[in-house]
Amino acid sequence: MSENTIALVTGANKGLGRETVRRLAALGWTVLLGARDPGRGAAAAAELGGRVEVLPIDVTSDESVAAAAKEVEERHGRLDVLVNNAGITGPRVAPRETGADAMREVFETNVFGPVRVTRAFLPLLDRSAAPRIVMVSSGVGSLTLTADPARVESRIVALTYPSSKSALNMITTQYARALPRFRVNAADPGYTATDLNGHSGYQTVTEGTDAIVELAQVGPDGPTGSYRDRSGVIPW
């Protein structure tokens, strides 16, 4: 892709988001580091250097997302790549104790957040010659993998986080069908050491961003409506 590519990564002041920003900026792209906390976002952008710009954005707020879209329009006039990375695990409670409030909290960020951000930025993505959207999902969103006792995903028994990623997967496929000119795909980072799992994952953040970075670079004839990890296509 061109060095003039403009990308936005949400939830990017640390972890997978920050590493995604670093790797995309290394391609010569202009990368907007989306962060709910402007101070932390600015600090991360300063550390990364290059063509990294901080963009304050809280994916749970209509007002914040609208303001971010307006700012990108004023700065750049378009967007080529949107990486919906911001996500939370929510409270770690057993299914028997999980209530609607816990579900609502997680879905607000992991499901409604990507929809809110995508809708707001679609007019800017429409101006791109090769618009791409990457939804950062998880293997625990796969009904097939979580039903396979040989897979690590089957060991996580929870209502909140897995169901939010399953919902995000369906949203991905529907956007892909509705936006034929776009490339819209879901990335499974794999079990990566981040704050979300207390750094218990066996992959590095670089390994965890392989699928994200790959899907961010797909061309106009590349895959859309797919679900991939760093090794290739995975089952829904």
Structural overview:
It is built from nine helices and eight strands. The chain has helices at 15-25, 38-48, 62-75, 100-110, 112-125, 143-146, 160-178, 205-208, 210-216; strands at residues 6-9, 30-35, 52-56, 81-84, 132-136, 183-187, 227-229, 232-233. The chain has 236 residues and is of the alpha/beta class. The two termini are 28 Å apart. α3 packs parallel to α5 and α4 (100-110) packs parallel to α7 (160-178). Strands 3-2-1-4-5-6-7-8 form an eight-stranded mixed sheet, sandwiched between helices. β1, α1 and β2 (30-35) form a beta-alpha-beta unit. The model has no long low-confidence stretch (mean pLDDT 94). 40% of the residues lie in helices and 14% in strands. The chain has one domain (6-233): Rossmann fold, CATH 3.40.50. The longest helix is centred in the C-terminal third of the chain and has 19 residues, at 160-178.
